[in-house]
Amino acid sequence: MKKIFLLICWFAVATSSLAQKDSAFRFIQEIPFAVSSFSVDNIGALYLITPENQLKKYNEQGDSVGVFNEVTRYGKLSYVDAENPWKTILFYQNFSTIVLLDKYLNIVTSINLRKQNIFRVHAVTSSYDSNIWLFDEQDNKLKKIDDNGNLLSETVDFRLLFDSVPDPVKIIDRDGFVYLYDPQKGIYIFDYYGSFKSKLTFLNWTDMEVFGKNIYGFDKENIYKYTPPLPDVVAYKLPPQLQNNTAIKINSHRIYVLKDEQLRVFSFQ
C-alpha cells in the first residue's frame, strides 16, 4: 500500500530546528501534500481533508486505507469527528446534517436533524456505545441519538442548571464522562446519565482533548496540560515555527500541527 510518511529518519529529527534537545516536541514526520483540515482517532489513524475536498484516511503506519470523494455532497463540511475508528462522523452544520462513514469511508447513513426537530447544533461526537452526542441549542440540552436520529436520552434544560447557558463548540466522551467546551465559559463535565458533575474555567482555548486523567488545551502559542485534582496547569510553549497555526490535535503519544496547509507530527513528552 502506498506510503505517505516519507520523513521519518532520525537525520530529520537531529537536524530539524523544531527538535531542540530541551524541547518537549520531537519531530517525526510531515504529510507530503496540502491539507485543509484533519482529525485523528484514538488508534492514530489520520483523516485528512485536501484543498480539493477529498477525505483521505491513513493508518498509523502510513498506509492509505480509504478515500471519500463526496465531501461537498451535503454542502460545506464543518468538521470530521473520528472519535470512533469504526464510525466516522461528517457534520454539516449549515444543513443540520450528519453523515456516517464506515472504517473504509463508505457511506453508512445520513441523518437530517431537522426531521428530528433539532435545528441548532454546533457540536457532535460519537458516544461510548456507538451512538451520537449533540448539544441542542434550541432546547438547551445535551442529547444522545442513534444512527437513525432517534432520541435515546437527554439532560434537563441547561437553563435550570446554570445562570448562563454554555454554547459548546466541542463535545468529548471519555471514560465515563462527557465534556462540553465553551471557550468563553469553560469545560462542563457530565456523567453518562446526564448529571452535571463539575466545571473547569479554562478559557480561550482553540481546542481541547482528554486522555486518561489528563485534559489538554491549545491556543496559538501553547499546549496546556491539566491533571485533576492538581491546582496548576502546565504550559508547553510551541516552537515559533508552529505558532499561529490553523489547528492542533493530540492523541495519547503524538501532537499534530497544521499550519499553512502543512501537517507535521511530533512526539510529546
Structure description:
- The protein has 269 residues and is mostly beta strands.
- Among the domains are: 34-116, Thrombin, subunit H; 117-204, Beta Barrel (Lipocalin), CATH 2.40.128.
- Helices cover 2% and strands 45% of the residues.
- The protein has 1 helix and 24 strands.
- The strands form 6 sheets. It has a 4-stranded antiparallel sheet with strand order 1-24-23-22. Strands 2-3-4-5 form a 4-stranded antiparallel sheet, with no helix packed on it.
- Strand 3 and strand 4 form a beta hairpin.
- The longest helix is centred in the first third of the chain and has 6 residues, at 10-15.
- The protein is globular.
- The two termini are 31 Å apart.
Q: Major beta sheet, specifics?
A: 4 strands, antiparallel
CATH topological fold name of the domain at 117-204: Lipocalin
- Let me know the average pLDDT: 88
Strand content: 35-45%
Give the N-terminus to C-terminus distance in angstroms.
Answer: 31 Å
Task: Please identify the top-level CATH class of the domain at 117-204.
Answer: Mainly Beta
Oligomer: single chain
What percent of residues adopt helix (DSSP H or I)?
under 10%
Bulk shape: globular
Q: What is the number of helices?
A: 1
Determine the structural class based on helices, strands and strand pairing. Answer: mainly beta
Which CATH architecture of the domain at 117-204?
Beta Barrel
Number of strands: 24
Biggest sheet strand line-up: 1-24-23-22
Spell the H/E element sequence: HEEEEEEEEEEEEEEEEEEEEEEEE
Whole-angstrom Rg: 19 Å
